[in-house]
Every structure is written in structure tokens, then in C-alpha cells.
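Moderator note: this is an archived Q&A kept for reference. The question asked for a predicted structure of one protein chain; the sequence and the answer are reproduced below.
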Amino acid sequence: MSAKATPLPSPAAAASSSAATVTERIAASITQAIVERRLMPGTKLGEQQLADIFQCSRTLVRQALNQLSRDRLVTLTPARGAFVAQPSAEEARQVFEVRRMLESAMLAELVTRITPEQIATLRAHLAQEREAVARTDVPGRTRLLADFHVLLARMQGNEVLAQMLGELLARGSLIALMVQSAHSAAESQAEHEALVDALEARDRRAVLRLLEAHLGHVESNLRLHPRGQDLKAVLTP
């Protein structure tokens, strides 16, 4: 008796899946550029320019911009179009306030049950951070320094928490220094090293103290004076 053939997806379903993939790619590229501080707050995101960059229709671009607007990374203004969001100083303060609450609770629990394997994973990540800082890889080191916090969240086994923290990091990057100095990057990297040392020692008090100091230093680097930039140069692979 012959096995039944697996039905092929309909052309309409295949086209819908392809469109969704393009929309996700556009949204992911813009989000990554924000996280890596290559896209400045206030940058205009022209639909036609994005369509040319990603070689797709303006409809797919519009869908990606709507998604980013829901994530508060993009502001949609009638008759003016889409712009990278420009959070206020008060919103910045609130973002870091939420990060403090989430990450403090997260690390207070993680320090009690972190495994040697997880410490090894963190050490490997720290090595990548050190290399990126040493070679002045600005986008790479910025991404890795942010990913450190998401990696800690994933070690909780809570993907929702990791996604929430990732969104907060992206929003925080909108108002953080666009080109972090080598000194600031090295300082953040050293603070990550100290956090992992405290986690490995299961020193809860030191972990929470180091986290508070680290977030305070990052927040102190905020600035609210965006500069214009070339969208094509930022987003073209």
C-alpha cells in the first residue's frame, strides 16, 4: 500500500509566507540597526527608499513599519511618514526603571541555581565581548553587550522574559550613545565580567549591587540630541 503524498502548499499560501518573511526581515534589520546604534532617533524611514533597499513592495515595508510602531521603535506621523522613535528623557528613565526591576528579580533567582554549564556559556560570551572591544568593532561590541542581558534572561528558561528584555534594550538604544567610546565599552565589558564572577560565587548581594551600578553607568551615557544620517548606508547589507 503506497504512502499518501504530503500535499503541497497552495500558491496563495506560499506567497503569503514569502511576504511575511520579507516583512520580518525588514523589521529585524531596522531593529538590529537600532540595537547596534547605527540608526539614530528621528531618522526618517521613507517607504520607497526602504522598498528599494530591500527590493520589495511598499506594502511589505508598510507592514514592517506598522509592526515596529507597535513595538514603539518607530513613530508613524500622518502626512509625514515614519521616523525612528525619539523617546523623551522621562521615558528613558522609565525604561531603565523597568529594567532594574526585571533584571534584579531575574538575577536574584538565577544566582541560586545557575549551573557550571551556564557559567561556561557566559564565559564564552564574555570572550567575544573582549575581542569586539579590543578590535573597536562598534556594532559588534554593542550587540554583544546588549545580548549579554538577554542571554541571562534565557538562562531562566523564560522566553517571554527574554523577549521583553530585548525590546527594552532596543528602546534604550534609541537614546543611548550612538558611538560608544572605547572606554565606555571596556567599562561595560568589565562590569559584565564582575557580574559573572559574582554569579559563579553565588553571591546574591554582590550580584544585585553590581547590576545596579552597571545599569546606572549605562543610563548615565544617555543623550537626547539625534543627528541625521544616510538610511541606505545603514541598512544596505
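Archived answer notes: The chain has two domains: 11-86+226-235, 89-220.
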